Every structure is written in C-alpha cells, then in structure tokens.
Amino acid sequence: MNITVRQLELFVSLMRNPHIGKVAEEHFITQSAVSMAIKSLEDSVGEQLFDRISNRLVPNESGRLLLNRIRPALEQLQEVETMFRLNRMAGVLTVAASSTIADYIMPQVLFDFRCLYPEVQVEMLSRNSADVIAGIESGSVALGFIEGDYECRVAEFRELCTEELVVVSSDKDFASAREYSLEELLDMKWVLRESGSGTRQTMWEYLGPAKKRLNLFLELEHIESIKMVLKNPDTLSCMSPFCVQRELANAELFPVQVEGVEFKRRFYSVTHRQKYKSTLLQAFADHVRKHLETMWPWIMRNPQH
C-alpha cells in the first residue's frame, strides 16, 4: 500500500470542502493533480471514497470511515512537523461552547490566549450544550465546553468547576421580601432558555415532577433577550451568575431566594475519545480552566484541581 501524506492531506481537504477547484487553490496545485492523488488513494485502499453525482464529489460512508481513522494520525504528524520546523505554538483550533461560556467567559480567554500565542487561530462557535456534544460526536468540533451533565459514549469529559444558578427578578421589593417556597413561584411568568441549553437541563433535573406545573411563559434563545424581558412585572428567570454579574452589581436584577432549592451544575471540557489531543488543544483547555479558577466567588472550585 503506497499511501502518501500528501494524498491524505488532499483527501481531508476534500472531505471538508468537496470542490476540487477550491482544494487545488488551497494547496497551490492543479485540479488534475488533486484528482490523480484521490484516484491513487482510492486504488490503494481498494474503495471509492467519494460518490460522483451530477459532476459533484459527495463523501460516502467509506470516505467518512477513512477520515475518522486517519485524522488523529495526520494531525499528530502535522503537529510534529510544526513543532520541529517552527518551534512555536501555532495552528487553527475549532472550539464550541455553550452560550453562557461562549458569551461571558470565552471573550477574555480568547484575548489572553491570542496575546500569548499570536500564531494560533481559535475558531469560536456558540451553541447550546446539546449542539456542542453533537459537534464533538461528528468531529466538526475539536474541543467543547458545556454546562451540565450529558451522556455521550464517544466523548471524554473533564470537570472544570461547579456553579450554582441564581433565580432573578427585576422587582427589588419582591426579591428582598423573604425566602420563597418553590410552590409559590411556579405560577409566575418564567422566561427561560430553549430546550437543549445547559441551564434549562439543570433546572429540569432539580425541579423533577414540579416542572410540569411551572408556568413556562416564554422561551428565548439568547440570554440578553431574557434579561430585557425580565423588566416586565411578575417575571422570573434562572441563570448562571456569570450572565448577571453586571446587572446584580448595578441593582438592575435581584436574586430571589428559593427555599430548599440549589440549582448546582458542573462545567466540563469535552473532546472525542478518538481525537488526538494536540499540544495546542491541551494548552487552550488548561488556559480556560485556569481562567475559571480566578473568577468570581459564585464558582465553587472543584477539589480535584
């Protein structure tokens, strides 16, 4: 079998963007050279890796299988080449994070990391936690960060910290009056994130059967939209303290004490079990963890770290 690294590089590029012309431009070669390399690779493995449909290349099941098998090894080869040739941290890392982490934690992390490693490009995607896990499963995301516990057989989870969600209202008198039972709050107008979000999942787990009686008045995708709606009377939401730090400090929102209820959850970094853990990937994950360790007192640090 005479498979070359160049053939595999072109194959990976075509799997990502199945347009021969674009791949040829990306690698500074002719379209015929790309076609010949892919044909030689198919001959070597004894399988067609792309379906030719209406003059288009469409990755097939054999192509996807080969991609999953060779991508970790190819990434490791590329890292070794970069390490010895350039002797510096460099590369492109695709990261997805759930909304709370992406909007309220990652901006400063990305800024600090870029200052440390100017040759690194981090492609940041904001998703809900369920979609982050889906990206890890499909291999389209190298490193994920989520809120809450999820089941995924192909994923590796590394616990980063624990936090406690806070129930908030814009009504200072209501919030400061007393501690409320959960039953007293169920009929109020609750404004929450959409199904699939880590915040929503954490609430549902703690509410148990009571969630069927909670007045879910409105579902919104964006946290800032929820905070705007909370200006209306008789509205409540449940959020990460990361999201409302400014509003709590400026007395725009107020914490509501709920008797006997603690909406605690864990933050995790997530990778695919078969994903090669490059130096860059590990450095970024460690940078996020260290950043969280220095943040606000709402975080209850994981004793393992």
General description of the model:
By secondary structure, this protein is an alpha/beta fold. The protein is 46% helix and 23% strand. The chain is built from 13 helices and twelve strands. The strands form three sheets. It has a five-stranded mixed beta sheet with strand order 4-3-5-12-6, sandwiched between helices. The protein has a five-stranded mixed beta sheet with strand order 9-8-10-7-11. Strands 1-2 form a two-stranded antiparallel ribbon. α1 (5-16) packs across α3 (31-45) and α1 crosses α4 (61-86). It is elongated, with a radius of gyration of 24 Å.
Short description:
The chain is an alpha/beta fold and 305 residues long. It contains 13 helices and twelve strands. The C terminus is likely disordered.
